[in-house]
Recover the amino acids of this structure.
């Protein structure tokens, strides 16, 4: 008989976040779950890891088919700790991160802690998927995404993912989703608007704020476009960031040292 | 008359690190420099950004052709602050990060603060290059890299870089470098060895340690190979992580919600 899938979960909003609680509920029927998530919010942590302070790994609860741990580390630290300390006999069959409170389309893959964890799992040979809902609110309604998340999870368990690849899934925050689109990462960036304030003791300090700017709003094959149109977007992504085209071009550059 | 190039610099070892001091010395003849670097070491910060605390931006020194600022932010924050607050009239012509104390080959592009800053500058349309020396020591000898760094910088100023592209340069820590190789990112990963210790107040804590494992030591076109053979490695890298091959494959997956 085939073994029940072993599923590792994490996120960057902390183990108490409604997003991961919802993900746990959706995925429990599909396998045995081990959750290792930050003890509190670590948004914008990217693939950061902790090198100067020690990490903890504390069990929160354990019942049949579901163990939950928290750590003071980043999302990447959580994945590293989990794979190193909790899976001696058997590697997880799949890793899911999220559901993030807020979308992670376009270049967010470079900043997001949710996706930092996904990249880390993928690097360790575990098929990995990040889920994000386009609503930052703590009271976001994850309900409409339930069947889609389950179906995506089933497909990943069935097909697997090629080595060094992972999926970035974004879900619109609307009551009725239109379906799924396989997309490419939109070109865009955050346009910063630092809020500069005078410090009571002299000098200034700056709050980082900003808005995302879509640099190709008319392209219909991007994750940004799909999300705005009411579709669940999936961007198949890869760890190898080499630009093979620029690698060819640069053969004509001059690197002679006289 | 053509304007003197305007060059932005940062790193993840802090503005006092010998690596960035050396980079400043090497690049001063090429243009006017503005340095915005973390106030202390922020290694392993990836593309993390600071969302819950305010940032500062403090001028350290200013002379003709060289301004130095420090910030309590991450390397990415430093680049964001610099581009937003210091370049109102004219965007920098190029961005350089480093020289990092320690190599950043293979998948280090996902973890490194040095390269997080490079990705950030690239996202903002500034041609960006990260330099790393394969020696973690504070007393590392950056000397032999001088002519290579200058030549690479000149070539980037001459050719520019396509939008959404950046360069990851690694330098062997040897007295005589063999030349430059344009490479692809090696497949590999860090194999963690957490050092687990008993906490004096009960429970355990973990120190993250580990070693890099090259998953394709026989491939001769990787950055890891070039570095080990005594060459300066350059990996042309791109912001778009979409896997266009997996995007095709996944068209056959079943996303029907019954």
């Amino acid at each position: 008989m085939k073994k029940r899938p072993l599923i590792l979960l994490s996120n960057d909003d902390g183990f108490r976040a409604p997003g991961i609680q919802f993900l746990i509920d959706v995925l429990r029927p599909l396998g045995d779950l081990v959750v290792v998530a930050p003890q509190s919010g670590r948004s914008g942590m990217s693939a950061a890891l902790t090198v100067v302070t020690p990490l903890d790994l504390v069990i929160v609860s354990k019942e049949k088919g579901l163990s939950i741990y928290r750590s003071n580390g980043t999302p990447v630290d959580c994945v590293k700790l989990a794979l190193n300390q909790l899976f001696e006999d058997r590697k997880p069959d799949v890793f899911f991160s999220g559901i993030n409170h807020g979308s992670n389309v376009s270049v967010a893959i470079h900043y997001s802690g949710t996706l930092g964890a996904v990249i880390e799992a993928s690097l360790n040979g575990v098929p990995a998927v990040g889920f994000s809902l386009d609503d930052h609110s703590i009271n976001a309604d994850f309900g409409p995404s339930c069947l889609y998340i389950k179906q995506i999870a089933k497909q990943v368990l069935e097909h697997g993912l090629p080595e060094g690849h992972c999926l970035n899934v974004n879900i619109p925050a609307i009551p009725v989703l239109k379906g799924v689109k396989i997309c490419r990462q939109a070109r865009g960036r955050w346009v910063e608007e630092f809020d500069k304030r005078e410090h009571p003791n002299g000098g200034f300090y700056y709050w980082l704020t900003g808005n995302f700017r879509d640099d190709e709003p008319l392209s219909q094959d991007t994750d940004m476009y799909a999300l705005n149109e009411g579709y669940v977007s999936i961007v198949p992504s890869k760890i190898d960031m080499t630009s093979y085209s620029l690698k060819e071009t640069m053969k004509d550059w001059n690197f002679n040292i006289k």
About this structure: Chain B has a mean pLDDT of 94.
